[in-house]
Amino acid sequence: MDCPWNELSLAFSRTSMFPFFDIAHYLVSVMALKHQPGAVAVAWKNPLSSWFTAMLHCFGGGILSCVLLGEPPLRFLANSTNILLASSIWYIVFFCPRDLVSQGYSFLPVQLLAVGMKEVTRTWKIVGGVTHANSYYKNGWIVMIAIGWARGAGGSIITNFEQLVKGCWKPEADEWLKMSYPAKVTLLGSVIFTFQQTNHLAISRHNLMFLYTMFLVATKITMMLTETSVMPFAFFEDTLSWMLFGWQQLFSSCEKRSETNSFLSGTGSSTSKPIADASDKVHKKHTKKTKFT
Amino acid sequence: MDCPWNELSLAFSRTSMFPFFDIAHYLVSVMALKHQPGAVAVAWKNPLSSWFTAMLHCFGGGILSCVLLGEPPLRFLANSTNILLASSIWYIVFFCPRDLVSQGYSFLPVQLLAVGMKEVTRTWKIVGGVTHANSYYKNGWIVMIAIGWARGAGGSIITNFEQLVKGCWKPEADEWLKMSYPAKVTLLGSVIFTFQQTNHLAISRHNLMFLYTMFLVATKITMMLTETSVMPFAFFEDTLSWMLFGWQQLFSSCEKRSETNSFLSGTGSSTSKPIADASDKVHKKHTKKTKFT
Amino acid sequence: MDCPWNELSLAFSRTSMFPFFDIAHYLVSVMALKHQPGAVAVAWKNPLSSWFTAMLHCFGGGILSCVLLGEPPLRFLANSTNILLASSIWYIVFFCPRDLVSQGYSFLPVQLLAVGMKEVTRTWKIVGGVTHANSYYKNGWIVMIAIGWARGAGGSIITNFEQLVKGCWKPEADEWLKMSYPAKVTLLGSVIFTFQQTNHLAISRHNLMFLYTMFLVATKITMMLTETSVMPFAFFEDTLSWMLFGWQQLFSSCEKRSETNSFLSGTGSSTSKPIADASDKVHKKHTKKTKFT
């Protein structure tokens, strides 16, 4: 006799995303598109272009996953039911009289419900991506992590690329220095589900899906209610980052301090140089004489 | 006993595009490339780059269709005969002594003949794309429309993308607000042939090919002779556009007028706001206080 | 009894690139990445982004070849051993205490050895690409040349594209007017090995691999030692270029001179126009009256 917890998580893992969770995902995606500057004007002047962009927002993760696996990127168009559902949502969001849908969406409880349901679909996408990649590359764990990540959070890459081609988006180099919360939490999920798939985690898939989904929904709703951008695992992330990548900065700053000290004792003036250039300086030391201004 | 009309359209549908219609298509494509600013200089300084761009102009639709269906984009290079034919045309267009080919092409009857024959190839590409997509996705009508459209008019996407990568093209956001005539007429053809493929149109394929081709050639030649950009189906396009997408603007303008009236009666001054922001205003009404300057 | 030369080239062609030649290739690629402006700062702020860029530098040619053949671009991630090897090299190059690896690499003998070994891997990639394309398209010689070229020197296209998307690279139109030395020498190798594959060259593959590799390594090391950018086959390249593409410029300059002479005898003043516009002038002669300022 299965315990109630097991039955609950099993039933949860067998829930179909169609139609309610998919509707929530499409609604949140199209509303995000609508809030972009000029999106409404584009919808009225060229509805086909607006519809296409909305489809990229709704199905971007699956498209990216197809591109990476060499499958037809247009495959999502074969699922006519979901396409019609997403198209209907696009139509009523942009063309509803008196903008009723946007007004309804502006109420916080409605937003919380829709965003919470969208986070549930994220788990399903990650799991789908990991198992699909496993069917191609048995135990190719890096591929599984990449495809799970692409399916769960890759839509923004597709939509950013479309904006780049349209000339609406000019990427700044430092944008790539920051990963968004959805990207980080999806990468974490993809790693966890890959380890579960390769039997490195002693937990069944349906239990893991339940726990991970609860984590996603709880953190997302908390962040929305408290209007904070501090991520729940920021401490672990910083610690891991320092352990793997931070200690060389420690060496470099010690070296810089000893250089500055010897310089100070030599000339009596001080220079301030950013830590980020420390390794370049070490590299150039053997090639040219350092200039002091 | 078949009627003469049926025999004519059947014989027409069995015409091979190779070599004369293909030559016309390659000639028009390469001449369009040659008229771009700086194309001749590029041909003399880096013939390989110019040749590659010419191949994208000639085979761009097929390349895009392969990309969308997950097939090798380089597949067009396997057809050595067509590649050599297109390369020869590129060579004589750019490197003919005294530029004889360009001089010959500048005569209007020659242009009309070449452009007319190129329009014939458009029908063959649309039909090829629709049937090819149908072999992948039985009754996937959205995929069939998309592939027919890509094959018939997708070349410009490939060539624009190549120019974007080369830094020669900076897309403006409003370019995407206007669809060109080839794009519109190819989309119409793709929809029609898809409905015919899925047996929703009571007309045989060869008859439809004949009628659609005659329509394409007649409208294109008329537009060239009259030097007009007004499209023949503009009226139907505007009507359909207004029916599907225009009525919300009607609601919004009524609402804006009533807002202006109440404002006028309140303060005695007037504000003018564009219709395109009307829905954004409705959305923001519940979130922040509107400022009047 | 095989001659010693044959045995040597046969043994050479059976050498495995893993691990030493692959290590050299990854080292040279990652050091090239490190020398880009801001690469070290990116590695410290977003190690994942830096790692991804390093993987594109190391495996870019294979990724491009997969994209062109419609295979999964992520396939390189399935080879976990090579990925771990390349990742380790990235890690120690960017995060080694006191930047020891960069200091070691700055010694010329170390650079020459690494670069020489990397050139050996180029031959293996070209041959791999040509044979792989031949398995898809029997005797599709254009495809074989293209895939051999993509595998051997296509990595820069992938990395430039990634920089374009990140906003770090703005391509200038005239960059496409110059092909780099690796691109030219890889194209030459791809053509030679394709002719050998289609039995148009009376030389065995292992002998050709040995000769081509010796040519690559010798020229590359010579160019590094003499710090020259003059390519060894520049004379043949210029001659071939003039034979195929240069004689029309001769016609155009003769025509321009005769136009100038007739103009001089007519008005007594002179105009100077670049040769590159000569063909545009010929084309426009029939369409509009030329203005003289």
Order of helices and strands of chain A: HHHHHHHHHHHHH
| Category from helices, strands and their pairing of chain A | mainly alpha
**Which outline of chain A best applies?**
globular
Q: Quick one: how many beta strands of chain A?
A: 0
**What average pLDDT do the residues of chain A reach?**
81
Structural Rg of chain A: 24 Å
As a percent range, the share of strand residues of chain A is under 5%
Calculate the terminal CA-CA distance of chain A, rounded to whole Å: 79 Å
Number of separate domains of chain A: 1
Largest interface: A-B, 35 and 40 residues
| Uncertain residue segments of chain A | 268-293
Largest sheet entry of chain A: none
Q: List the quaternary state of the chains.
A: homotrimer
* Percent range of helical residues of chain A: over 70%
The number of helical runs of chain A is 13
Description of the structure:
The structure is a homotrimer of 293-residue chains. Chain A is mostly helical and 293 residues long. Chain A has one domain (10-170, 177-226). Chain A contains 13 helices and no strands. Chains in contact: A-B, A-C, B-C. The A-B interface holds A 38, 40-49, 66, 70-75, 77-78, 80, 83, 94-99, 102-103, 106, 165-168 and B 67-70, 136-137, 140-143, 146-147, 161, 164, 170-173, 175-179, 241, 244-245, 247-249, 251, 255, 276-277, 279-280, 282-283, 285-287.
